[in-house]
């Protein structure tokens, strides 16, 4: 099944959410970026996916470059570029890249919702789909590093990450898990979730990009 409808729905929600708002509104989930910058990143990032340009992903420079290169553009410029790059990206949605694009757009949708005081769409298929690729990546990382297996209990069922019998359980929602592993929660916030077992065993493994947020983030 193609991921295109899920991506387009999130893109539409973001467009409706942002239009008519102050484009310079700070987005606390992505420090240093404004609403306009997040949209510019989504537009530029989609083109980088098309071009297979991923230099600087690990360091964070990948996204910073997209924002920096578009600093003088307007929000409407960002939307126009996003539309153009969405057409170019059509083949990606039926490839393994499709689930990565869903994770990217849905995570940033909720960054923008938090910035604009408009929470919503936390318990639908979009958030669950946004976890598909990150959980695959975390599972692989835990197996490669011999981290004890962890059972994660979500509202729609259980998932075991790692190899063998689970040595602990984390009970949370899909939304909270998405935000936690995506760098939108501090280590202390993650440790305060509903755990069976010592969260310190898994806390570093649950940082998808190698780091948790240094300060708590509430939304």
TrEMBL record:
Keywords: Isomerase. GO terms for molecular function: isomerase activity. Residues 12-86 form the Mycothiol-dependent maleylpyruvate isomerase metal-binding domain. It holds the Pfam family MDMPI_N. Transmembrane segments: none annotated. This is Maleylpyruvate isomerase family mycothiol-dependent enzyme. It comes from Lentzea rhizosphaerae.
